[in-house]
Amino acid sequence: METPLRGRRHTPARRPGGRKPRPPGRAGPRARTARHTKKKSGHPLRTVEDRYQAIDAMKTEHPVTQLCAAFDVTRSGYHAWQKAPPSARARADAALLEQVRQLHTHHRGRYGAPRLQRALRQRGPRHGTKRIARLLRQAGLRGRTPRRFVPRTTDSRHDHPIAPNHLAQRPAPTGPHQVWVSDLTDVRTGEGWLYLAVILDLWSRRVIGWSASATLATTTVLAALRMALTHRQPPRGVRHHSDRGVQYASAEHRAVLAAAGLEPSMSRAANPYDNAAMESFMATYKRECVGLAEEAGGYATRAQTQLDFFNYAETYYNRERRHSALGYKSPVDFERQLN
Questions:
Q1: Which segments within 76-205 are labelled E, that is strand?
Q2: Which neighbouring-strand residues pair with 72?
Q3: Phi, psi of 116 (to 5 degrees)
Q4: From the CB of residue 127, how many other CB atoms can be counted at a distance below 10 Å?
Q5: Closest listed residue to residue 113, CA positions, set 92, 131, 91, 90
Q6: Binning pLDDT at 50, 70 and 90, where does residue 183 land?
Q7: What single-letter DSSP state applies at residue 174?
Q8: Interatomic CA distance for residues 80 and 85, integer angstroms
Q9: What residue segments make up the domains of the chain, in order of their start?
Q10: Residue 35 has pLDDT above 60, yes or no
C-alpha cells in the first residue's frame, strides 16, 4: 500500500482556467456586490428629499406603493415627510419655482432651463440649470422644443445672374453693418398663404427689415430691403446674403443693392445651411410665434398674422429674447454694448 510522502503539502485541484478554488462558504466578488447595486450606483435623484418630491408630484398618476419602490424609499418615510414641516431646501425650491413659473408664463412657455437660468441671474442669487430643469419637470413645465424647418419658398429656376457666395469666404462679422442676411418664408392663414421677407444683421441677429405680402413677387423682398436701408443707413460695402431665389436675383433687387452700395452674395444651390443664421431665425419664429398661434387654432387672416409677426420681431425677439449666440443677450442689448 502506497503511503503519502512526509513534508509534501496537499494542493487542491485547480478550477478550469488555472484559478484556485474558492474556500468553502465564501462568496465571489460578483455575488457580494450584486446585492448592493443601488448602493453602488446611487439613484438619479440623489437626495431622499428629491425622491419624496418626485413621488408627491406623481402620486395622482401612480400608486404610492409602486412609486416608493421605484424610488427606493419606504412608505413610512414618505408619509412622515408629508407630515413634517417643509425643510429649508423645500422652502427655497418653492420660492424659486414661483419665480420660474412667472418667467415661464411671461415668455409664453418659450424659455427652457438655460434661458430661465440667465433671466433669473438678473434678479438675484445664481441657480444651477439642473436645479431649474428639475423644478420645471416637477411642475410639468417645459420650453418649446425645436422642430425641423424645411425651406419651401425658393425658386432658383431662372436665368438671372447668380452672385458668388462671399459669406463662406469672409470671417464672422465683428460689428454692425458688415453682413446682412435675408430670406423668405410662408405662413398659412384662413385667407391663404402669407409670405414674409426678413433681413437680419448677422453680427447682432437683429431683425432690421421685414415685409409681408400675399404674393412671392419681388416687391416683397424690396420692401424689406428698403426698410433696412431706411432704419440703419449703412455705409457702402455691406454684404447682403440670400439664397438664389428669383426675387433676390432679379434686376430690380440687384439695382437697389447697387444704388445703396451693398455687395450681393448668394448661397450654393440647394444648400440652405449656407445661410444658417437666417434659417435658424425662421425656425425660431415658426416654433415660438406661429406654433403658439396654431395651438390656439391658427391665424384667421393675413392681417392678424402680420400683426403677430410685428409684435414678435420688433417687441419680443429684438428687445427681450435672449440669444444663445449673443451670450444670452437680446439683439438690442448686444448692440448697446458698443456704446
A1: 179-189, 192-201
A2: none
A3: -65, -40
A4: 19
A5: 131
A6: very high
A7: S
A8: 10
A9: 41-83, 88-138, 167-336
A10: no
